[in-house]
Amino acid sequence: MSKLHQMILMLGIIMLPLLILAETNYGQILEINIEGNNRIEKELIKSLLAFDIGDNLSQDNTAKSIHNLYQLEVFDDVSISSISMKQGIVVTVHLKEFPVIRRLKFKGNKKIKDNKLKELIIVETGNYYAPYIIPEIKNRIMAEYQTKGYHYAQINFEENFTDDYVDVTIDIDEGEKIVIRKITIHGNHDIPSKKLLSKMSTKKASFLRSGKLEEEKYQEDLDKLIKFYNKKGYIDAHIISQKKEIREDGFYINIYLYEGESFTFGNVSFTGNTVFTDEQLTSNFKVKDNEVFDKEKFDEQMSAVNDMYYEEGYIYSAITPQQIKDGKKVNFKVDIIENTRAKIHKIHIRGNRSTKEKVIRRQLVLAPGDYFQQSRVRRSLSNIYNTGFFEPDLYPDYQGINRNGDIDLVINVNDKTSGTANGGIALNSQDGIVGQLGLSHNNLLGNSWEVSLAWEFGGSTQNLNLSFTNPYFLDSNFLTGFNAYFATKEYDTYELRKHGGSLKVGFPISLVNRAKSIFGYSYYRKKYTILSDTNADEVSNELQGLVEDGWKDNSSISLTLSRDNRNNIYFPTSGTQLVLFTEVAGGILEEIIVISSRFSRQTGMFAPSLILG
After folding, report:
1. What CATH code would you report for 264-337?
2. CB 389 within 8 A of CB 415
């Protein structure tokens, strides 16, 4: 047997027990002890262990347990040991927690206040102080100093450890402010550097400009340069490279670009389109003869083509323009793969915590079984937002459900606080202390019921007002509501008592989109009473006549016609609001006609009114 074979045999004899040992378990666990944890509960630690009492301890579940504990990011050291007993083993988990920050302060910072630095860093007193957070803190502080032009700032950490705590001082040497001294653009032949530099927010230092270099804005400026070239027909323009050189007096920036040639717009052709004709698609491209090609404008025109398909439910369509150069002209061949038309299978409402789902579904202008239409989705979202029950961040989502391209539409909403409560106390010479209490809710119990209660009390005043409106009575399109009030008020010589209420009912006008009518009836009574301590000579003849009339009744009927198709009732950019109101009170000679209208668009407001009596 050769020496090589003898060595292989000996190595196999040595390794065999180790291999056998690696495949065996250490033993059954009888007990688990935790040592070294000061702030982390034992229950949490045990929940992260990959073994439990009764299991067999192995290399695999030991390594997994150590990994899980390190994932907490609070331990500086983790190890696991075991002691063999007669019936099994006792396992001990040894832990060493990172120290806790007891004090945290800054030193040397003049240009950035402590409060701002505290917002930037990711730790505060009471947090664990781990070595891996130090580079992150340095990077965040350094990035903020660079935005202010201090690119040579130095950040150091002074640490004072005591038992399990550490006092940290972040020592900042701000250094000198570095500004931009010169920006040079290379490679431009047709467009002067002065014109290009005017498009950049990043400027060299001057009497009126700081000249600080903000990296994010600088990168945006590079994009601005290319977009500017693209608007001028330079479709091949791009940044070759750029270099920022720091000298003793500041930054010197060199930008190297490729300009290329300017192209005019040629023509657009389409392939694969069957839903729309070439003429319909081409109508989106309004181009004059020999017009300089504007990439931004072309992208907007292509977006209009996409919208046409999206509006008709072809949400899976693929529309790809191919650029074809023809001399100094650029033509486009647009390849269209229409795919299947999406039909809505189900509509799901998500995120409504207090508003009932039926309230939201009433605002939808599309239903399961309809083909998807983008405009109707937007209108539905606008209707939902205009209820006033939700935050502005509502949005749709789509889920494909089958090979036919059908989708489930998901409407994501976020309830906002719909109720208010207010109260106050005032002091005046006539009534003394007067209190006010108001409660209102425009989405009571999530049913879109509007309710309000107002109570004014104290001294010689009592005023109670309660109103309720249900815009969808018995889940129909009929609106119902009522108002009731009771008021007493004492003046110098008399007391006035009033009480009454009103009823209203409304329904949509089917012949006019988004229009409705509301009929109202109101009734109230009032009575004048002379106060008991009033002298007769203080009572006027007019007041005496009102007192002798006793309870005086009054009633009226009203009609309101309205139409509101604004896209946003809070900040409208399109649509109109029109309201016509008429009220008849008492006999025919006491008729009061009030007509008002309100017209709102993005361009302004128009609000005439007419009162006849």
Report:
1. 3.10.20.310
2. yes
Strands 89-97 and 27-35: parallel
Terminal-to-terminal C-alpha distance of the chain: 128
**What are the φ/ψ torsions at residue 313 (nearest 5 degrees)?**
95, 5
Determine the topology of domain 100-173 in CATH: Ubiquitin-like (UB roll) (3.10.20)
Calculate helix-pair angle for 295-311, 215-231, nearest 10 degrees.
Answer: 90
Kind plus residue range of the DSSP H or E element containing 358: helix 357-361
The rounded distance, in Å, linking the Cα atoms of 537 and 532 is: 13
E strand or H helix at 410, and its extent? strand 407-412
This prediction's pTM: 0.61
The architecture in CATH of the region 180-258 reads Roll (3.10)
E strands, 471-531, are 479-490, 494-508, 515-530
User: Rounded to an integer, what distance in angstroms lies between the CA atom of residue 78 and that of residue 70?
Assistant: 7
Model pLDDT for residues 472-494, shown as the tens digit of each residue: 998 888 999 999 999 888 777 77
| CB-based contacts of 133, cutoff 8 Å, min separation 6 | 122, 123
Q: 556, 521 in Cβ contact below 8 A? A: yes
User: How distant is the alpha carbon of residue 508 from its chain centre?
Assistant: 33
Instruction: Name which CATH class applies to 11-97.
Output: alpha beta
Of 579 and 146, the one with more pLDDT: 579
* pLDDT greater at residue 492 or residue 505: 505
**Cα–chain-centroid distance for residue 513?**
31
- Distances in whole angstroms, Cα of residue 242 to Cα of each of 86, 256, 444, 518: 73, 6, 61, 68
Query: What does the block give as tokens for 424?
Result: 């106050």
> Residue 338 pLDDT more than 50?
yes
Q: How many CB atoms lie within 10 A of CB 209?
A: 12
d(CA 435, CA 423) in angstroms, rounded, equals 7
Average pLDDT on 179-206 reads 92
Domain 344-412 CATH superfamily: membrane protein fhac (3.10.20.310)
The alpha helices in 205-363, defined as continuous H runs, are: 215-231, 278-282, 295-311, 357-361
Q: Give 138-161 as a DSSP string.
A: HHHHHHHHHHTT-TT-EEEEEEEE
Residue 228 CA, chain-centre distance (Å), reads: 31
The yes-or-no answer to whether 180-258 and 264-337 have a common fold is: yes
Would you kindly state where each structural domain of the chain is located, as residue ranges? Answer: 11-97, 100-173, 180-258, 264-337, 344-412, 498-525+540-612
The helix, strand and coil proportions of the chain, stated in percent and rounded to the nearest 5, come to 25, 40, 35
